[in-house]
Amino acid sequence: MRRLLVIGLATLFFSGCMMDVTAPVEQAPPERQVEAAALQADRLSEVPAYYGGYKPNPNVTDDRRLTRPGERMHDSRGEMEVLKASGEQKRVVAGQGELTIRETKMLRYEPASGRFTGGEAFKFIKLFVEVRNTGEEPIQFDPVSAIGTDTGETLHWEDDIYREELGGMIAPGEVKAGNIGFILQETDADVLTLRTGDSEFEIRF
Length: 205
Description:
Layout: H1 2-13, H2 23-27, H3 30-43, E1 72-75, E2 78-86, E3 90-94, E4 97-111, E5 122-133, E6 139-141, E7 146-149, E8 154-156, E9 160-162, E10 168-170, E11 175-183, E12 191-196, E13 199-204
Antiparallel strand pairs: 1-2, 2-4, 3-4, 4-5, 5-11, 6-10, 7-8, 7-12, 9-11, 12-13
């Protein structure tokens, strides 16, 4: 029941070196909170170029600049922390469909009280992907049908929390980019096995 509640509520809103960037902002007096937040932002990486014009969901803490395990971002929407991350990029061709995995993260998200799960934290796998139709005919293409972990957990497409209309019909030459995310029960995984169409490939943290 708890898993179904988390998936159901999250799906409505998701369409996105140890550094604690939370405490300085919260402890700073109001007149210095903006300044403190700006200083913290300088410690994080720039938004990777492959995000291009992608606009994150305004209801969820933006994790684009969180690239290394231990990094955290806190704002009015909640707190996001990177548990594991892989910059390993994979490109897989399935017929006319071409899938490029740009980044893979294992994240912990604690929504602000009153958002999504009422402030209850949950952990999930998130991938930023590009989907391209390289052929001359429209195709039906689902980026990832399932993800398996080396801890024995299997995460299915219907359980995802990020979808962003990446699956479905794709016109010739069309490129879609966005997030795919799956809620995790186990967080000890070091290897993900992704299946798309008839292809299967691994990503290691």
